[in-house]
Amino acid sequence: MAVELFGANEQHSVDIDLDRWIDLGAKVLEAQRISGDVEMNILFVDEDAIAALNEQFLGKKGPTDVLSFPIEDETEFTGRSPDQGGSGPGSVPLAAPTTLLGDVVICPTIAQSNAIAHDTSDDDETALLLVHGILHLLGHDHMEEQEAEVMEALERKLLTEHFSSNWGAPRQ
Length: 172
Fold this sequence. Notes:
The protein is of the alpha/beta class. It has one domain: Collagenase (Catalytic Domain), CATH 3.40.390. 41% of the residues lie in helices and 16% in strands. It has five helices and four strands. It has helices at residues 18-31, 47-58, 108-117, 122-137, 145-162; strands spanning 3-9, 38-44, 66-70, 99-106. Strands 1-2-4-3 form a four-stranded mixed β-sheet, sandwiched between helices. Strand 1 (3-9), helix 1 (18-31) and strand 2 (38-44) form a beta-alpha-beta unit. The protein starts with a strand and ends in a 10-residue tail after the last helix.
């Protein structure tokens, strides 16, 4: 039983070290006590791709920096009801299914623009977007002010502990 992260770089404008971001994602999930058979995807896409996703799923025009797509479908078990046991005497019990957390989709060119606006490094901005996206997959939100404060504090804590002790320092 292991947490598995998969990454894909589907854009060509910005160099991406997939292993680095997969490693950060794994550390964040571990820090949030996510364990067992869990899968998550990290995708880096161009502005056109994220704009299309933004419009299709959120009804918003134009590109954005990060989108999270939690997997919300319940896993269908097979076997008898209600205990989900095997199909009869001597059958092998079913293994627990893999939990699919979902996808975090990041647009590196928007991340670079954000970094300039926030006076931080491109890596710090990408790390923030990844952690932000993962927290959304885990059920965190920022619709209400109190929720936003909790989520932002958790982002800062995770980034400082698992990415860089001087995360968010002004651009050099």
